[in-house]
Design a protein that fits this description.
heterodimer; A: mainly alpha; disordered N terminus; disordered C terminus; B: 108 residues; mainly alpha
Chain lengths: 225, 108
């Protein structure tokens, strides 16, 4: 039984996922991160190593700060969508992979076996899925207004949290840890709320960055597609 | 490197350190979404009581986000925050520097 004197962000621990799901998680994580490394050349040159590292530092720090949601439950920021909007999707993937690895390896936050799954669920869904949604929304809402930027970021960030919670629920169910009809509504309902925190914080950071460094965020399109 | 990038990096790193040091000890100790669900649906006991991460040398130093040698909880968390934030920064910078060098573009 997990017994924690002081409780901070807990990702999926060892023991919740079955071996096939663990392997799947690692395979997807490894595949997408490899893809990210191959496509780094398409990222904006404005995403310098120091800037990328700064983003990682921010996301690590932010993930430590659980905020109360309701009924004795807390949530924490993920930051995947934020990272991808700031740096580009592929650098975003790298950032999230590093952050989750440090958390798991150094601070036992999330199981080592479950690290692949954790990276995919809480990182890559945001940096890739969330980013894709963000681009779609910006194209739809008009690329050059603060409102379109904020709305796109907010919706994409919120969706990545909710989407991640769904995938997590499915992973748990497929692992035989808990029934899908129980875990899916439970996970989703909490994360509908947690996602709001993600959306607000993402918009706040993007707005701040957008004001001092507008070119970083003006309709970002990859060089090759 | 341009002035505004410089400023962004300083503000970003500064914010990260403030958050990791001053905010993290104040973080909610309530269980997060997954933990809450695991308790409610009664599968929390399935977590490994001796996870792999505890076999690693870092476990000698850190009990989750607490620095073992420091007994004051809030200071312990703050220190863990600084260390983790710095490690994330350093590791990411090293990897990004390596990877972006081999990518066909100018490093500004």
């Amino acid at each position: 039984m997990l017994h924690l004197p002081f409780h901070l962000a807990m990702h999926i621990p060892d023991g919740y996922l079955s071996l096939p799901v663990i392997i799947c998680g690692w395979a997807i994580a490894a595949g997408l991160i490899t893809l990210a490394i191959l496509r780094l050349g398409t990222e904006s040159p404005r995403s310098t190593p120091l800037l990328v590292a700064t983003c990682a530092a921010l996301i690590f720090a932010a993930q430590m700060v659980n905020f109360p949601i309701a009924d004795g439950t807390s949530g924490h920021v993920l930051g995947g969508t934020l990272a991808s909007v700031l740096l580009g999707p592929w650098l975003g993937c790298l950032v999230m992979a590093v952050v989750f690895t440090v958390q798991a390896v150094v601070f036992q936050d999330g199981g080592i076996t479950a690290l692949g799954a954790n990276i995919v669920i809480m990182g890559l869904i945001g940096t890739l899925g969330g980013f894709g949604l963000y681009q779609l929304l910006r194209n739809f809402l008009g690329k050059y207004s603060w409102l379109s930027l904020s709305l796109s970021v907010a919706i994409a960030a919120w969706s990545s949290v909710v989407g991640g919670s769904m995938v997590c629920a499915v992973a748990l169910a497929v692992s035989g840890t808990v029934a899908l009809e129980l875990v899916l509504p439970a996970m989703v309902s909490w994360h509908l709320l947690i996602g709001i925190g993600e959306a607000l914080i993402s918009v706040a950071v993007i707005s701040f960055v957008g004001r001092s460094y507008p070119e970083l965020i003006s309709s970002r399109q990859p060089v090759n597609n | 490197m341009s002035n505004s990038t410089n400023r962004l990096i300083k503000v970003g790193c500064g914010t990260a350190l403030v958050v990791a040091t001053l905010l993290s000890p104040l973080a909610s100790s309530d269980p997060d979404g997954l933990d809450r669900v695991a308790t409610d649906l009664k599968f929390a006991h399935k977590a490994d009581s001796k996870p792999l991460a505890q076999q690693l040398p870092f476990y000698q130093v850190f009990e989750e986000y607490q620095l073992k040698v420091v007994s004051t909880q809030k200071i312990s968390t703050a220190l863990a925050g600084i260390i983790g934030t710095s490690a994330s920064f350093g590791l990411t910078w090293a990897i990004a520097k390596l990877m972006l060098k081999s990518a066909p573009q100018e490093d500004t």
